[in-house]
Amino acid sequence: MGHPEKEPQVTGETRYPLQVAPTPYRTSDLYYGAFLRVACVPLLEVQRENGRIYFVFENGPHIKDLKREYFNRTAQVPAMSYADEIRAMKALCHEQ
């Protein structure tokens, strides 16, 4: 007849690669930050360092493409939404 199946033996602890969140993306460029907001990149926080404002966004593989499109002037976003985000981000700069 057949041999009874053996249970697999555990010979050590299972190790999983650590899932490390990417470092947030920072920019001090208000207009580029407004573009990222219109492009649906989540704004995580606004930081103030030495009198300068930094907009901190969620980082990901899409940031590189968005940056290239923005600075190559090939990005397209709705004009009114972009203008609204510029105003909103200026207001963030003036908050205390």
Description:
The chain has helices at 30-38, 61-71, 79-94, and strands at 25-27, 43-49, 52-57. The model has no long low-confidence stretch (mean pLDDT 87). It has 96 residues and is α+β, with helices and mostly antiparallel strands. It has one domain (25-94). 38% of the residues lie in helices and 17% in strands. The radius of gyration is 23 Å and the shape is elongated. The relative contact order is 0.19. Strands 1-3-2 form a three-stranded antiparallel sheet, covered by helices on one side.
> Count of helical segments?
3
How many structural domains? 1
Q: Share of helix among residues?
A: 25-40%
* SS class: alpha+beta
Distance linking N and C termini: 81 Å
- Identify low-pLDDT runs: none
- Strand order in space, largest sheet: 1-3-2
DSSP strand count: 3
CA-atom Rg in angstroms: 23 Å
Mean model confidence by pLDDT: 87
Assess the beta-strand content as a share of residues.
Answer: 15-25%
Global shape: elongated
Major sheet, described briefly? 3 strands, antiparallel
- Spell out the helices and strands N to C: EHEEHH
